[in-house]
Amino acid sequence: MHYDTDSNLHGLKHDPFKALAVPRPIGWVSSVGKDGSRNLAPYSFFNAVADRPPMVMFSSVGRKDSLKNIEETGEFVCSLANWDLRHEMNMSSAAVGRGVDEFALAGLEPAASKLVKAPRVARSPAAFECRHWKTIEMPANEKRPDLSNLVVFGIVVAIYIDDSFVQDGLVNTGAMRPLARLGYMDYAVVTPETMFTLNRPEVAADGKSATVNTREWDGVYR
User: Fold this and answer.
1) I want to staple 31 with a disulfide (CB 3.0 to 4.6 A). Which of 69, 127, 197, 216 is the partner?
2) Residues of the chain with pLDDT under 50
């Protein structure tokens, strides 16, 4: 099948776009308003966009509570959503009224951050403390101009990692069992059994060919 996205006449039960742009990390964004009220919400359009300095982004359809808080205080935190917290992550997605504390709604304990006021999810194995850099408004849906698409960028100023997941000087990502968003109501989970390693190709001196060495990774990014 092949269809254009203007008409979106794909003939399927649901729009397949988000089932194809996969897997997507989940940005479990916590923020506080000027009045000190907490907010926690998962965003499936989330990712890292730079590492020097480390930066992350998430996108929001409309100016939701997370974005309002971030623009008020200039800070937010992205906690890692994992298998053990899947039900709590899902509950925190409820579209409750402004001022409702999703930490309490989902039965989660907040933990103080190091450099920002917004708390992290205490049981999450890792978290990024972020300062708001910029919000960019993207093109809106021509059929729903009232629904703006906004991308929020943050500079990561501090990182929390549960020490139990640090082994031999590396983060054991598989042991954290992070979640990924798929399409429809589907999710996936990273486990030690689903992870694999591939060394990057090494380019020959003449720049015309490349080979991949199957030895254990030597710690050098090429």
Assistant:
1) 69
2) none
